[in-house]
Amino acid sequence: MENTEEKEHERMRNAAIRVTMMPRDTNHHGTIFGGIILSYIDIAGGVEARRHTGHDLFVTVAMKEVIFHEPVFVGDLVSFYADTVKVGNTSITIRVIVEAERFNSRGKVMRVTEAELVFVAINKNREKIKIRN
């Protein structure tokens, strides 16, 4: 039987989302806008929050830290791996690691960005509610 650390590593390797970057997402330097990456990080974090809790509605309340390690280029296949760090009464903290498989270097994968986000559970009236565990 696998130990907990191996299971957690395997779960983290299950990408919340994968996206191929397109020319419409570039800035004047020819790299992907940081804001595009941030929006996908937000989506990936939301996917993990829902997977982990089973709750349907969350809002993003914080991006505690975002680190851009490497640029992302047009054609890169970008994977957003999300893992739950902490679950509170109404909030959940998610860490997202972003890796890019370079378009012109098949198989070459590098960490390009990482972030930590906090989401709060809400109801259909947008009121904060307790996360059901």
What does this protein look like?
- By secondary structure, this protein is α+β, with helices and mostly antiparallel strands.
- It has a single domain, classed as Roll (Thiol Ester Dehydrase, Chain A), CATH 3.10.129.10.
- The protein is built from 2 helices and 5 strands, in the order αβαββββ.
- It has a 5-stranded antiparallel beta sheet, with helices on one face.
- About 5% of the residues have low confidence.
Instruction: Give the number of domains.
Output: 1
The SSE order reads HEHEEEE
Distance between the termini: 25 Å
Approximate helicity band? 10-25%
pLDDT < 50 runs, ≥5 residues: 6-12
CATH fold name, please? Thiol Ester Dehydrase, Chain A
Report the β-strand fraction as a percent range: 35-45%
In CATH's first tier, which class applies? Answer: Alpha Beta
How many individual β-strands? 5
Question: Secondary structure elements and their pairing?
Answer:
Layout: H1 4-12, E1 17-20, H2 34-53, E2 58-68, E3 77-87, E4 91-101, E5 109-121
Antiparallel strand pairs: 1-3, 2-5, 3-4, 4-5
Provide the descriptors you would attach to this structure in a database record.
2 helices; Thiol Ester Dehydrase, Chain A; alpha+beta; elongated; 133 residues
